[in-house]
Amino acid sequence: ANTYLKIFYLKDTQLTSLPSSLFATNQALQDVTIADNQLLTDIPGGFLSTNPQIKTINLSNNLLTTWHVEWFNALVNLNQLIIDGNELVTIPDGAFTSNLLAYLSINSCGIKRLESTTFASLTSLTDLLIADNQMRAIDVEIFNQALSLTRLNATQNQCIDANFDNFDRNVDLVQLQTCFDSFSTLNVCEFFP
Which phi and psi angles does 81 have, rounded to 5°? Predict the structure, then answer.
């Protein structure tokens, strides 16, 4: 039997695992919040694969350690993703497929590095929050790929290097908060011509 639940909210429940078929028969799900479950360390790869209509996901403040590429691949309508406060360290290539994703928050996840292609498919990304991670360098090619980006928060990282020689923005950032105060070298004239 199909179910028609639109919002799934499961917060602060001491949840330890999720069955991969939890949302398999739901044809209307649009908003999923599974947050503040201090015992949740893994979510099955395709747990939302039958729900392409989902627009918002909040998986913040769990103990997730592995980012499965399959988590969001089928979610072509995903607009907002909040995954703050986990222990993910890396984001794999191909993690995002929705070109509608506009808001991405991955604060406080222990991320050490972002590849230049990480956000390449996110043509609608306007807000990128990557604060309080462990990044020591920022590849500006990330921002050249995310052409709609208007808000970037990368504060509280451990940045010591950034090369802005190839910074070629067609759109102005409205809000730029970075770890620039930590850089040992930065040519500001190249960044703000």
Answer: -135, 125
